[in-house]
Design goal:
The complex is a heterodimer. Chain A is α/β, with parallel strands linked by helices. Chain A folds into two domains: about 10-100, Alpha-Beta Plaits (2-Layer Sandwich), CATH 3.30.70.20; about 200-440 and about 470-530, TIM Barrel (Alpha-Beta Barrel), CATH 3.20.20.70. Chain A has 18 helices and 23 strands. Chain A has an eight-stranded parallel sheet with strand order 11-21-20-18-17-14-13-12. In chain A, helix 13 links the parallel strand 20 (about 405-410) and strand 21. Chain A is elongated and about 110 Å long. Chain B has a domain at about 105-245: Glutamate synthase, alpha subunit, C-terminal domain (Pectate Lyase C-like, 3 Solenoid), CATH 2.160.20.60. Chain B has helices at about 1-5, 25-35, 210-230, 235, and strands spanning about 15-20, 40-50, 60-70, 80-85, 100-105, 120, 145, 160-165, 185-195, 205-210, 240-245, 255. The radius of gyration of chain B is 19 Å and the shape is globular. Classes of the chains: A alpha/beta, B alpha/beta. The interface between A and B is large, with 45 and 51 residues. Strand 5 (about 125) of chain A pairs parallel with strand 12 (about 255) of chain B.
Chain lengths: ~525, ~260
């Protein structure tokens, strides 16, 4: 069917500046740019074999305009790879003002999606996180600081502790004395993993992102003393040297999961849900399952990798307890086992069940969380904000006296260290970042992750594109980002007059709400500013 | 028991564990200790619902179970052979990588979930969602043979491997499997002794007749089944069989628009 979709963007190339190096043409994953071979096309048209034709061609040579770069606006997704990498700064991309007629109700993306569906009869697929203008609670929470009394601390000259352990804690410590009267810890501690900064990288599988992107995450995790997460895609052998800093995910498709995988990972995570697609399974299309992805996921080349919506061995909290125990048995109780869920309406009760099922860590992913691919209707309309979910879960676990049994990781739209501090004050032990990490590697959030055409070499398996991402450089960018956030967190702690992130954890008194309703404040457990 | 196992032995004799009243954690710890002490044959007596037996074990070993092992028998297992003299429960061979499990009686739901390799033979009937999401990778082709009947959603999402349902000892009128047989199947093969009504089939599969290659594969499995359970394989081979294959490897290829 003929497409009636107008181009969303207009690519403008400054032909005076352009020196025809061809970099943009070669690098565009979406094939939006090409050379217009004006000379040869015209010459071929003119030359039919006779001497007169040849003279016409020679005349054409005299007025020849060199080949120029032209854009197919319909193919452009505004990922800015060409704009960023054009050595002459000759490319500009603008939204197409005439794409859709202005309307406050029938916004352009609604119109666009209707046309797409009218032409295809399919579900609209998207990547990245919910971009709709829902209210952000983070933006309506502010942190406290010390003034005069209870002085603030200068983090540049005094020690500041960001170190965080993930794992289950005992309710109390029992100490006994040995024969010399020295105190000895009697309580048997359960396994913990150490984070030097209370941040982990969110689960992004090999398949959803490139191996170079995973390597960058692994390198940065190792350098910064944090963790990255395999996602549901197995662990490529190139990541083995970083395994001490890798969370091994076990999801419903069980891809790449064997005893060796369980043994290698520093920690295990059962993935139940994802903020961008609560209640939805995953589907890595066969085209993305090349030789290396196949080897890592342990499935044949070119076959679809379906991750069912539920784990079919988990239909209840008791069943979840069973998989948690099975993983602990299989690894002889040597590492924490976490459970990742999407933030949904009854998240507090669900989290309580998960804690009682024996999980050591609960990862809650809010509705702003990203994805490699999901139906847009799910991404944009299912799930609840992480701030509310986190506060509700932390409250519930405290009320039930089981908060110590689990560490909480909050995720889904953490954009800066301020969000990190607010999440920790709301009750998180650590946060996870996915989209922020991708942006640090170059991502411009064009939301086309599912297409496999990522020009930045992140969400693609095409070798000519994955080459665009240098794992060392991207890893350094990630490490720099974490360093920057760690410095800022220390500044925040200092201004709060505390010297350890532990002192901020769940300390909602250090938060105030601005412009929040009474009910919001009650759920968040914070006072309004001014009180 | 722990002290006794600390010394590595040149194991010739089997190591016997009385599982009476033992918590699964203690039982599995003892099994792991026996294996690391060098024992390669372990006999478990009075097993009564203890879960996760054989979980993640990668050491070659033979484990004989007298009694009824609990859920997730051989979960993540990689190599050993387990023989159950009794019935099994749910989740046997869950995400198993390699090894063999033989169950003399019947077994429960979700057997062989995500199983990537190895073999599971059940003499009797099995529950729902058996063989769900079985897969295969290169030389690893899992095999699951059910002597009796299977419940609904048998072979759901199956992505690889071989699933056989023989339907032995059925009462007249009892179907071979429940409904939604092989729904979402996109790889591997299912062999049925006899046929099932069309309406029981998932929409992604069709019934086919067996060719010589199928007979070679199935014949070997029937012989193996016969050996384990003292059933006359030659008799079984006289029957009619049907093969289920996915019609497309990409059943979900045309759902989306970008």
């Amino acid at each position: 069917m003929r497409s009636l979709l107008p181009p969303e963007y207009i690519v403008r190339i400054d032909q005076d500046r352009c020196r025809r190096c061809g970099r943009c043409v070669r690098n565009c994953g979406f094939g939006a740019l090409s050379f217009e071979h004006s000379f040869w096309h015209r010459a071929k048209e003119l030359f039919q074999g006779s001497t007169e034709d040849l003279q016409k061609v020679i005349a054409h040579v005299e007025e020849y305009v060199p080949d120029r770069v032209v854009a197919d606006n319909r193919k452009c997704v505004q990922c800015h790879y060409c704009v960023t990498h054009c050595p002459e700064g000759a490319i500009n991309i603008e939204p197409n003002p005439l794409a859709y007629k202005a309307n406050h109700y029938w916004l352009p993306h609604y119109q666009k999606n209707i046309v797409k569906q009218a032409e295809s009869g399919g579900m609209i697929l998207t990547g990245s996180g919910n971009d709709k203008p829902y209210f952000s609670y983070f933006d309506h929470l502010v942190l406290d600081a010390c003034q005069v009394t209870n002085p603030s601390i200068d983090p540049l000259r005094e020690p500041m502790e960001l170190r965080t352990y993930l794992g289950s804690r005992p309710k109390a410590l029992e100490i006994e004395q040995d024969s010399d009267g020295e105190p000895v810890l009697k309580t048997k501690l359960t396994p913990q993993v150490k984070l030097e900064i209370p941040i982990v990288f969110a689960a992004m599988s090999y398949g959803a992102i490139s191996l170079n992107a995973q390597k960058a995450l692994a390198m940065a995790a190792k350098e910064c003393g944090v963790l990255m997460n395999t996602g549901e895609g197995g662990m490529h052998r190139d990541l083995y040297p970083y395994a001490d800093h890798i969370i091994g995910q076990v999801a419903s498709g069980r891809f790449g999961v064997n005893p060796e995988y369980l043994e290698r990972a520093a920690m295990l995570e059962i993935k139940i849900g994802q903020g961008a697609k609560p209640g939805i399974g995953g589907h890595l299309p066969g085209e993305k399952v090349d030789e290396e992805v196949s080897r890592t996921r342990m499935i044949p080349v070119g076959s679809d990798a379906l991750s069912p919506a539920p784990h079919h061995d988990i239909y209840s909290i008791e069943d979840l307890a069973q998989l948690i125990s099975a993983l602990k048995e299989a690894t002889a109780y040597t590492k924490p086992v976490g459970v990742k869920i999407a933030a949904v309406h009854n998240v507090a009760a669900i989290a309580s069940g998960i804690a009682r099922a024996g999980a050591d860590v609960i990862y809650i992913d809010g509705f702003r969380g990203g994805t490699g691919a999901t139906p847009m209707i799910i991404r944009d309309h299912v799930g609840i904000p992480i701030e509310l979910a986190l506060a509700a879960v932390d409250d519930r676990l405290r009320q039930e006296g089981i908060r110590n049994q689990v560490s909480l990781i909050a995720a889904g739209g953490i954009r800066h260290s301020g969000d990190v501090a607010k999440a920790i004050a709301l009750g998180a032990d650590a946060v996870a970042i996915g989209t922020a990490a991708l942006i640090a590697m170059g991502c411009h959030v064009c939301q086309q992750c599912f297409s496999g055409n990522c020009s930045w070499g992140i969400a693609t398996q095409r070798p000519e594109l994955t080459r665009h991402l240098n794992p060392e450089e991207a890893g350094q960018r990630l490490a720099n980002l974490l360093r920057g956030w760690a410095l800022e967190l220390k500044e925040i702690l200092g201004s709060l007059g505390i010297n350890a992130i532990e002192s901020l954890r769940g300390s909602r008194l250090r938060l105030r709400g601005v412009g929040l309703s009474e009910q919001d404040l009650e759920i968040l457990g914070v006072k309004p500013a001014g009180r | 028991m722990g002290c006794e196992l600390r010394n590595r032995v040149e194991a010739v004799e089997p190591y016997r564990i009385d599982a009476q009243g033992m918590h699964h954690r203690q039982l599995n710890e003892t099994i792991r200790a026996a294996l690391s002490a060098g024992y390669r044959e372990i006999i478990l007596d009075n097993v009564n619902g203890q879960r996760y037996i054989g979980a993640g074990i990668s050491t070659p070993a033979y484990i004989e179970i007298n009694g009824v092992p609990g859920n997730d028998l051989a979960v993540f297992m990689n190599g050993p052979t387990i023989r159950v003299h009794g019935n099994g429960q749910d989740g046997i061979a869950n995400t198993m990588n390699s090894g063999t499990v033989i169950v003399d009686g019947s077994a429960g739901d979700v057997l062989g979930y995500g199983m990537r390799g190895g073999r599971l033979f059940v003499r009797g009937d099995v529950g729902y969602r058996v063989g769900i999401h079985m897969k295969e990778y290169r030389e690893q082709v899992p095999v699951l043979v059910v002597g009796g009947r299977a419940g609904a959603f048998c072979g759901e999402y199956m992505a690889g491997g071989v699933l056989v349902v023989l339907g032995l000892d059925r009462l007249p009128g009892q179907p071979l499997t429940g409904d939604y047989l092989a729904t979402g199947m996109h790889g591997g093969v299912i062999y049925l002794r006899g046929r099932v009504a069309e309406h029981l089939l998932g929409k992604e599969v069709q019934m086919f007749d067996l060719n010589d290659q199928d007979w070679k594969l199935l014949g070997g499995l029937l012989d193996e089944f016969g050996n384990y359970f003292g059933v006359d394989a030659a008799e079984l081979k006289k029957d009619q069989y049907t093969k289920l294959l996915p019609v497309s490897h990409r059943p979900y290829g045309r759902l989306y628009v970008s």
